[in-house]
Write a structure and sequence with these properties.
8 strands, globular, Jelly Rolls, 8-stranded mixed β-sheet
């Protein structure tokens, strides 16, 4: 299986929460999720990014890993994979499901978040 690279989210002055599209995982067990916030404005704006797996039977989503509430221009990396040492809001000891998505929950008063979220899936 070759490594896979995906654009999970592209936000341009987003002011409300966004659900990314489903992504098909073609066999990657590990994921590196890179969140690059290039602008965040408003009164106490926050953005929490969550990687969710999708149950193939019910179609319901479940949380694999969620970032902390981010509130500044910065690059944040989340890691998911079997055998990794779990760390709250940054690393999950888990296997990537066959279908997943990334969502962002935006908070604050008149927030505007510009960011990209890339996902690398690795055998």
């Amino acid at each position: 299986m070759a490594n896979q690279n995906y654009t999970a989210l592209l936000l341009s002055a987003a002011s409300a929460s966004v659900n990314g599209n489903d992504i098909d995982n073609l066999g990657g067990r590990f994921a590196i999720v890179t969140i690059d916030i290039t602008a965040i404005t408003g009164t106490t704006p926050t953005a929490t990014f969550t990687v969710q797996g999708k149950d193939p039977v019910s179609g319901k989503y479940y949380t694999i890993l969620a970032s902390t509430a981010l509130n500044a221009v910065a690059t944040t990396v989340l890691k998911i994979g079997p055998g990794l040492t779990a760390a709250a809001n940054s690393v999950a000891n888990d296997i990537m499901p066959t279908v997943f998505r990334v969502i962002v929950t935006i908070g604050g008063t008149t927030p505007a978040v510009t960011a990209t979220v890339g996902v690398q899936l690795i055998g």
